[in-house]
Specification:
- By secondary structure, this protein is an all-alpha fold.
- The chain contains 13 helices and no strands.
- It has helices at about 5-15, 25-35, 35-40, 45-60, 65-75, 80-100, 105-110, 115-135, 145-155, 165-175, 180-200, 215-240, 245-264.
- The longest helix is centred in the last third of the chain and has 27 residues, at about 215-240.
- The radius of gyration is 18 Å and the shape is globular.
């Protein structure tokens, strides 16, 4: 993997992890465009590095909320902090179940499935468009809401379905306050990312023989700082009802991907 490829993929990961356009879908499309054999060989390790960078940027931005969640878990009191902690845990269950029991089937979807990515981007665009038109409310996330949002997150494992787009859109369509929806969406994924990283590191499938340190470092830095900017930007966009522009983007890229899949 070249230094430039690492930076490009890092920026794409940092942007698309938070912006509702599907990081997994864009990485698959980028890999197809770059057509790099080195990228394929180092894909797992590099993916871990990029996800670690964006998870760290989320921790930096939401450090105050994360501390409250952790305190809520250890206080053993049914207060607002502990209730929020339980909602976060419940939201993780569907994705954890899918990840544990359907890992092989999921991995097969990340193998140049450009037609699938394009189709799922169209679905993401539809969700964003509907959410943008939804009526504003000030409702908080409930226990039932957390489970439904968790199901949306599990479906977003598919390449081309934006995780943030699916969870935020589902939250808004359920009547949850837009800013609260965005914050819950970003907080609920942090344990999953770190859990997935730990699982991959212990799998024994990672090889570092041909790995170059500087491209990995460049990708990490690019993803981290881009993620910081994208996360803050996304919260403002959701709050100001500007999701429709991302819907148009997903429609455009989705159609282009479908057309490209027929030409390959």
């Amino acid at each position: 993997m070249s230094f430039l490829e690492a930076i490009i993929l890092g920026i794409i990961q940092g942007l698309t992890e938070f912006l509702p356009v599907s990081s997994s879908g864009h990485l698959e499309l980028t890999k197809a465009v770059l057509n790099s054999q080195a990228l394929a060989k180092e894909s797992l390790l590099f993916t871990i590095v990029l996800h670690g960078a964006t998870a760290l940027s989320t921790v930096v931005i939401f450090w105050k909320e994360i501390k409250e969640i952790l305190f809520g878990l250890v206080q053993f009191k049914w207060n607002e902090a502990s209730q929020y902690s339980v909602k976060i845990i419940l939201s993780m269950i569907p994705a954890v179940f899918i990840g544990l029991y359907f890992e092989e089937e999921i991995n097969q979807l990340f193998n140049g499935q450009i037609l699938l990515v394009g189709t799922m981007l169209l679905i993401t665009g539809l969700l964003l468009f509907l959410a943008d038109k939804a009526q504003r409310t000030e409702q908080k996330v409930s226990i039932l809401h957390s489970l439904i949002i968790g199901l949306a997150q599990a479906i977003a494992i598919l390449p081309g379905i934006s995780r943030s787009g699916a969870t935020i859109s589902t939250s808004v369509l359920l009547g949850i306050d837009r800013e609260k929806a965005a914050r819950f969406s970003f907080l609920m994924v942090i344990p999953l990312i770190f859990g997935k990283i730990a699982k991959d590191l212990m799998s024994g499938e990672i090889t570092t023989e041909s790995t170059q340190l500087f491209p990995l470092l460049a990708g990490f830095i690019a993803a981290f700082f881009t993620g910081l900017l994208a996360c803050k930007w996304m919260i403002r966009l959701v709050k100001n009802s500007q999701l429709k522009y991302f819907a148009y983007y997903c429609f455009t890229v989705g159609v282009m991907a479908i057309i490209a899949s027929e030409m390959i």
